[in-house]
Amino acid sequence: MATDRPMRKLKNSELERKSIEDFKSTHKYPVYLVLDNVRSLNNVGSAFRTGDAFLIRGICLCGITACPPHRDIHKTALGATDSVEWSYYATTGQAIDELKASGYQIISIEQARGSVELPEFKPQADQKYALVFGHEVKGVQQDIVDRSDCCIEIPQHGTKHSLNISVSVGVVLYHFYYHLR
């Protein structure tokens, strides 16, 4: 896929970045991230930054998941905690209840019996989605998996069968963005 055009890396001034005010008034995709007891502040910050990149509606921080402002969240979020709406819930179940009542389909991102592989899942423009990502070691709590409408699994074929949450968030949000745009 060679091109005869000379390539040049863009300068920051050429990226047409939105201001916080412009971002807040921009159309958002009907997607929420639900962080179920995510312990790493860097993963939380990365979720904010990726959510900003793909114009999601917001993030639900649940249980032991840390909330902004925090230096370690800011280090990876790079200001996205100011653009992406967020709420804190003492339990993930509380967030799920609220999202279900608002018409969101609850999807746990988890390796589970009966899961759907990510490439096979086609998000629909007329549906709202809440994507649940779990604890770095324990994953999504089983009671949350039980209450989910489905589980999506990212196919993996190496020896680990484990991706960092920040990587999983990027892969899944890009998939949803690609199909919903």
Short description:
The chain is an alpha/beta fold.
Judged by helices, strands and strand pairing, the structural class is alpha/beta
Helix content: 25-40%
Radius of gyration: 17 Å
What number of domains? Answer: 1
CATH architecture: 3-Layer(aba) Sandwich
Number of helices: 7
Give the oligomeric state: single chain
Gap between N and C termini: 24 Å
Word description of this protein:
This protein has helices at 20-25, 41-53, 71-77, 80-83, 92-101, 142-147, 165-180; strands spanning 29-36, 56-62, 86-89, 104-109, 116-117, 128-134, 150-153. The relative contact order is 0.19. Helix 2 runs parallel beside helix 3 and helix 2 packs parallel to helix 7 (165-180). The protein is an alpha/beta fold and 181 residues long. It is globular, with a radius of gyration of 17 Å. It has a single domain (21-180), classed as Alpha/beta knot (3-Layer(aba) Sandwich).
Chart the SSEs and their pairings.
Blueprint lengths: L19 H6 L3 E8 L4 H13 L2 E7 L8 H7 L2 H4 L2 E4 L2 H10 L2 E6 L6 E2 L10 E7 L7 H6 L2 E4 L11 H16 L1
Parallel strand pairs: 1-2, 1-6, 2-3, 4-6, 4-7, 5-7
List keywords for this structure.
Alpha/beta knot; alpha/beta; 7 strands; 181 residues; 7 helices; 7-stranded parallel β-sheet
